[in-house]
Amino acid sequence: MNIIFRIIIITILLFTSGSTFAVENLSAEKNVIEQEIQLPENTELPKRDLNNDGVIDNKDLLIDTSEENFYMFKILGDPVNREEGSLFNKINKSLKGEVTRTDYSNYLLKDVLTVDLDKGPVDRIQFYGKYRGNMSFNFLQEDDYDTNYEITSIDVGMMGKFLPESKTEFKLQFKLTPTKDLSFFQNLISDAYIVNESIPHHEIMIGNSRNQVGVEGGMSTTYVPFVLRSQIARTFANTRAFGARVIGNYSLADYSLAINSSDRFFKEFFPGAEFTGWVNLKPLGKTDGKYGKLVVGGGLNAGKRQENYTVGGAYIGYNYKNFMINAEYSIADGYNARVFSTDKAEGFYTTIGYKLTPKVQLVGRFDQFDPNRDISGDLRREYSAGINYYVKGQGMKILLNYVFCDYQNEENSHRLILGTQFLL
Q1: What is the pLDDT of residues 19-73, one digit of tens each?
Q2: Nearest to 266 by CA among 150, 152, 179
Q3: Model confidence, pTM
């Protein structure tokens, strides 16, 4: 089994690393670490992660030697001689590492693809690749979901830090998966931004980054507990926007406030401006997790593109040890996501999950969506059940979902979806 596993990883590495290193010569001007809400382990607005891989605190967990985090990677340390420091040896160590946490993006080949620079303004660069794929089996209905949400994703990029005294990080990510209705260049750049942490408890982000429209809608695909996002997330959100953003994080509250261009996917220069804001309250924030984590939040995305649009939302989530439950509601008077629409839509979902073991998680979800409140009889309900197997934490996981679609204006359908995820 270990031999098969290593062959799969090395094959993917050969495919992704060639593309990844090609990124190095394309641009050194725009880059940075992804802002993303972590779910289900954490539902707070994100902090900057010095480790550059989605960690919610400012520690490099991969080299944290505290008792709490020592079990994350059993094999650590620098090569002691030339032979041990070979590329093959580094890859072998990375693949042998045992990962049991799932609340951060552990890139399997981080040690291999990270470069520490001795000269110039950049202190460190990490190259990476992401792959998320699926196999879907539909029963009784041939048509796929009628949204523009796409599951398969292949990304390559770089992220890193300028010199420590600058307190500035960067990220540049390219999407290699073709997307319908978008040209190659419109679809190519997904993240390109810098983040400064000079102000205590705050981060200033400038560039093209994930837009925080709702909790699941503003979350990285890495942490979504199902192969598919909820209907409100894949309809109202799951996009990037170019602008300036302020992120604040305190023990009892956090927030994200942004002024962006209302353009999406570089289709227009500046069709209008938009505001995107989200605020979370954390009533248990000073209890050190003794009673779990409770998050209550709400937000607004409003602006003008072709016409005015407004999306409002509310969220509540609770996590305690291996158990999680949440619910999110959104209502829109027009929305600006993968497509622009003036429809008055609304939706709601609730998710429950439990980890049987550190590697096996059961999840369930009820998801209801009304694509147009002015039209009756088009309510769409989805009932989902799934099991997630974390082979190497978020670095390698397998998702198996069953979805029953109960649509008022269409024939009911059943779907079985097998998803995979690799972070290199």
Answers
A1: 332 223 323 333 333 333 344 444 444 444 444 444 434 333 333 333 333 233 3
A2: 179
A3: 0.79
Query: Which residue in this structure is represented by tokens 């978008």?
Result: 182
Range of the domain at 386: 2-423
User: Tell me, what CATH number does 246's domain have?
Assistant: 2.40.160.10
Q: Write down how long the chain is.
A: 424
Phi-psi region of 167 (alpha: psi -120 to 50; beta: other; left: phi over 0): left
Taking Cα atoms as reference points, which of 367, 237, 238 lies closest to residue 311? 237
Extract the runs of DSSP E, i.e. beta strands, from 163-304: 168-175, 189-196, 202-210, 240-249, 253-261, 273-281, 293-304
Among candidate residues 170, 167, 169, 171, the one with its CA nearest the CA of residue 199 = 167
User: Two tokens at 373?
Assistant: 């409140």
Tens of pLDDT, residues 250-288: 999 999 999 999 999 999 999 999 999 999 999 999 999
How many domains, in total, are found in the chain?
1
